Amino acid sequence: MTLAEKVLAVALSQEGVEEHPRGSNAGPEVNQYLKSVGLGPGYPWCMAFVYWCMQQATTALGVKNELIKTGGVLLQWRTTGMKKVQSIKSVTPGAIFIMEYGNGFGHTGFVISVDGNKVYTIEGNTNDQGSREGFTVAKRTRLATSFKGFLIP
């Protein structure tokens, strides 16, 4: 199993995890995601979810986690040693998507698949509207034009 396959399997295994209570950026699993990047309950956790999934996958495979230990999406984009691409044509399942909203805000998760201009994802701290400040780990469908770039495990 490749790292991309393993990390995607880990992420998909978390589908349905929710904050308790909703809107708190906390809960048993969410707290573990946050702890993996050195944060306590109450912080936005999409990047922590990605880091936690990658840590689980790299540990299982006995390889190095190339992500930096941070809860910051855009800091990860700027400083990671992982391969970066911006063309949707280079994206494969298990890639980490990066979105930038301005003013230092971003969102991240994993690519499940790409179909034309649609990207199917699994992501933490999202909701039914696909917000970057949600309450659950869920699958989403996003437009290919929504992304700043992708990190390739």
Automatic annotation (TrEMBL):
Stored InterPro entries: CHAP_dom, Papain-like_cys_pep_sf
Gene3D superfamilies tied to this protein: endopeptidase domain like (from Nostoc punctiforme)
Superkingdom of the organism of origin: Bacteria
Chain ranges of the Peptidase C51 domain: 41-125
Residue runs in coiled coils: none
Protein name: CHAP domain-containing protein
Lineage, broadest ranks: Bacteria, Pseudomonadati, Bacteroidota, Chitinophagia, Chitinophagales
